Fold each of these.
Amino acid sequence: MAISKTPEGNIPVPQLDEVALETLAVRAGQIRSPELEHSEAIFPTSSFVFNSAQEAAQRFAGEVPGNIYARFTNPTVAMFEQRIAALEGGERAVAAASGMAAILSTFMALLQQGDHILCSKSVFGTTRVLLDKYLSKFGIEVSYVALGDYDGWQSGLRDNTRMLFLETPSNPLCEIVDLPRVAAIAQNAEALLVVDNCFCTPVLQQPFRLGADIVVHSATKYLDGQGRCLGGVVIGSEQLMEEVHGFLRSAGPAMSPFNAWVFLKGLETLPVRMKAHSEHALKVAVWLEQQSGIERVYYSDLESHPDYALAQKQQVSGSGVLSFEIKGDRAAAWRFIDAMEFISITANLGDVKSTITHPATTTHGRLTEEDKLDAGITDNLIRLSVGLEHPEDVIRDLKRGLSALQSQR
Ligand SMILES: Cc1ncc(COP(=O)(O)O)c(C=O)c1O
């Protein structure tokens, strides 16, 4: 056991060089207080005391390390940041109050008036609203490209393009982009590639190994995994994250220590949960594909998915999220959803409880009809986040949806 020197004294902490991801998920980032607690401590405090006025001045001036105020740093939040940074293989992570706060902080810290951001059409609906309605007010230009349109990524570049932003797999169609290919385009243009890794998590895909400059997460999803807390995180180089942290400490959307603790606990089981989510989702996807009431299933580990080969190369496996088009219209899709006995009708995903959503009228409801169709969000599309109930029980619930389709035809 190595000894770490802290202001409080000598605290034993394990060295974690060259350990596996599963070990990092449980052990990375823990800071033990002088109480030597085994499980990570929650520090529910808004500020921290100094031993003297001189020490206060030195900490504010950055001359001595240490906590000042919880909008800037908090030990529980720092533990979460260090653990997720270790899992993603990034230099530094900065936590935020939600996934959207993490995305906003990335934009606000690293873009300025007159810059252009080239974004995938298939990103979370609110990310598009943030860009179109709010960032544009501050003179940041945005344009969109289909995720898999590599010529479009190249030709969409402008002289002022500073950032490329995408999700892979996309929400909700599970489209996959060749990350090294887009990373090369970004690098040639001296623009930053930002990847929202919410669906895969570092367990299934590590974007830094594939050329990304920045990874963002809605920790609200799989990182928590049990639908308890809102949170987000941005990961990248020390230099870039210093800027993101600077915005966050000034603007204020910091992560609460309680939420950070929940996410720390979530990360401990992330590798086993992701494996189970993937296995269950594949079983459900294979079953759905065989049903006559289903038009099409979108899941990247199905051979029928257009990006199947890329998924095999780039991801350990598909995540727990899939989507499918039923044979019918919006009313039929709603009947299908309403027939669920235990699968929850809710907008969240990445939970141990399976959840079902109608993207066109919920998560992507604020997009124009044209933008929805462009992003493949049709009225008969349903998104399913397969949880950790027994997959046969999930299938039994989905059969109720199929029966509801037939009964009303
Ligand atoms: C892919 C993706 N990114 C970002 C977000 C935003 O995260 P949050 O709800 O934590 O703000 C979501 C939320 O659903 C999402 O699905």
Note: DSSP finds 14 helices and 14 strands in the chain.
Amino acid sequence: MDVGGFLGLVERARGGDRRALGRILTFLEDLSVSNAWMVEYLASNSSGKAQVIGITGIPGAGKSSLISRLIKAFRDKGYRVAVIAIDPTSPLSSGALLGDRLRMQDHATDPGVFIRSVTTAGFEGGLSLAALAMIEAFDALGYDKIIVETVGVGQDETTVMDAADTIIVVTMPGAGDDVQALKAGVLEIGDIYVVNKSDKPEASKTYEYMSFVAEKGDIGREGAWRPLVVKTSAVLGMGIRDLVEAVDKHLEYLVGSGDKAARTAKRRKLLIKLLAKKIVLDTLKKVYEEHDQSVGEVAKTLKGFYEESLELVRLAGRKLIEGS
Ligand SMILES: Nc1nc2c(ncn2[C@@H]2O[C@H](COP(=O)(O)OP(=O)(O)O)[C@@H](O)[C@H]2O)c(=O)[nH]1
Ligand SMILES: [Mg+2]
């Protein structure tokens, strides 16, 4: 797609055309040297003001159900909300994906809400790049809250969580052993810990445990933010107000401490790095595939690529870092 066509899509997406936005996101799922400028354009047009909220936790904890509640609460406050649901399952078990869609379908006709599901299958490690690019797109298109759902396993998901402004770790009663089985890294990343399904009797024990985890996460963390623990029931709609309050409080903290700007800049630098890496890998793959080239030809390809990527990184880097 040429620049004019893409700007037309962006214009239509700004005007509320969901299909245009869907097409933009599809381009971002398949970034290469030929369309990297799309990311540059979107990122240099994004305000960096959107709050990127990462929601992680074991499958079944109620992340999707909670997100549905959060969407409603954010919409009531007048925010536009985007959701990137990263589904780790293979295409074989895409039932989970369908489940997410069904739970969130209440919002399907609301123009202030956009939900995108992406599967890890078929991305070959480029999923975090796609997700970070989508974040810039949603920000550029005026979404205030960008929620990313993951189950927190795998390099891609860890990378995306690292890039969030606010990290919510969701657990549920009876998941104690699973919680302990989770990597310590996952346990300590939360800005907010949610004990969902607190309509169940074992919830208070889990709440105690998570309070301990939150304290542990507090140790060695730089800055003054003390992780919060919130009890919710997504099914009954309990504790949602507390959760929204915690999310707001964390944003206030980020803005007040200067952390918000720092995180946005860090996220964009990471995006550039992942994009450059993707282009390097694509090119190497191409060179390997054409292994019957002479050494001289390979060297020429690499030199051309080097100049091209240098120019790209220079341009993108300057715009993004100046703009953030
Ligand atoms: N009892 C109870 N069940 C819940 C609650 N929240 C979600 N569930 C159920 O737990 C299951 C998994 O929920 P889902 O939102 O898909 O979890 P996810 O895998 O973390 O996204 C579904 O059957 C939900 O209806 C809750 O607060 N209480
Ligand atoms: Mg889910």
Note: Residues 57, 59-65, 99, 103, 196-197, 199-200, 233-235 surround guanosine-5'-diphosphate (ligand 1) (CB under 6 Å).
